[in-house]
Amino acid sequence: MIRQFTTFLFLTPAPAIAATGAIAIEIQAALLVLSVTAIILLILLIRSHQSNQHHRFHLTNTKTALEKRVRERTEKLRKINDQLHEEIARHEITEELLSQTQDYLHSILNRMPSQLVGFTEDHLITLWNSEMERITGVSSSEALNKSLSEVFPEILPFLDDIEEKTEYGHTFYMERIRCPLSVDEKYSNVTGFSVSDENGGTVVRLDDVTDQVKLDRLLVQNEKMLSLGELAAGMAHEINNPLAGILQGTQNLKRRLSKDFTPNQKAAHELGLDMDVLESYLENRDASKIIEGIQDAGERASNIVTNMLEFARNRHGDQAQVNLAKTIKRSVDLILATIEFKDLIKQLDINLTIQAREPVPEIIGSSAELEQVFMNLIKNAYQAIAESPVKIPNPKIQIKIQPQPYWVEVSVSDNGPGIPEDIRRHVFEPFFTTKEVGRGTGLGLSVSYFIITSHHKGTITIDNGPNHGCRFVIRLPKPDCNYDLNLITENVTSYPENLPGIEDIPRRIVPN
After folding, report:
1. Which end of the chain, N or C, is surrounded by fewer C-beta atoms within 10 Å?
2. What's the distance, Cα to Cα, between the start and end of the chain in Å?
3. Does 495 score more than 60 pLDDT?
4. Torsions phi, psi for 465 (to 5 deg)
């Protein structure tokens, strides 16, 4: 527009210009102002454009720098995030290892056969393993954070000694401590040691050595019994001499009082003595019965001494042919010779019978060991009847011998109170007994089981007897049996109540 206006001024004629002089001057002035204004605006526009370009360049640089910083920060955050993930993974692995280690340690503590109890200085329980739960019947959740005096008072008599010993890092140890508060006779080895952590405290380990103590006592008792057996054997030999003299003298006395003996008739004739009158006198005064009684008593004493000698001989390792009927008869005679059972039979009027199906084959074994087994079973039967809470009418013990195709079967049954199922499962375990402390070792049936199964390759079982009591069944293999009795005892024929074909033995054993 400025260019067109300028062209208009230069191309317009002078007269025209003069005619319009004043107007033209004003127009020129206006045009000048407009030109200056346009130039100023142009300059401002150029400067604004340059300023915009500068700011755009500066913004671009700033954007580039910011983007670079964002990339750097993003990369740094990514690395930090990766490190964090790795740290979390390591932490999870560590936690898993700690959990596994804790479970492993707990498993060790709970699988240990020892009793473990830990407690603080204030005697609050912090550790209570599974063995403690089993022995005391108190669960871990019930015992933790409880006082020792409340949960485990048995340790209190030894607590002062344990704390005094462990206070300076020493270990407390005592062997075969009997628990004074326990109803049963229990012995333990006690070990105590302090725990070196921020909470402190003490851990006590108790190892049950009751079986070991009983076994040691049994060994001592066995030594005593061996010495007593040797003493009894020596006494039996010494008793045999005067006993033989008594029996021989009794036999001579009977012979010299007999009127049928020729030397007696000759001596009586020389003295003017009527033998018939003497015989009548002896019968009138029961002298003959007294002499018979002396002879019978001497023979019984001789049999007892013979049985004692046979039983006292250490022939447990000898294997020979054994007559079971005679072995059982000898066992019964030995029991009946003891004062305890003789009085017991008289008080209870126990009927003991032996029955056998003839012929009874001999087996290979140790007569002395089998006598020990039968004596244990017969004693148990006597004691079961005697200790029954309810009086047993017509108490009886039956011993039956019955040959089977591959073995000889012997049963010892009674009509006592029987044995409950929960106890019956444990009767052959060593040291298991239902008797009071001091009345039984709990080894009779376990030793019998070992003798039958290990030494004689037989079996011994327990079940309900035919008279609702208890019955022990022993199966001993015949010499020609090559089978394992444990594999063929399912087809055993049960005993009839009475065995037919009895000849010598069955008879009633009546105490004198």
Report:
1. N
2. 165
3. no
4. -75, 170
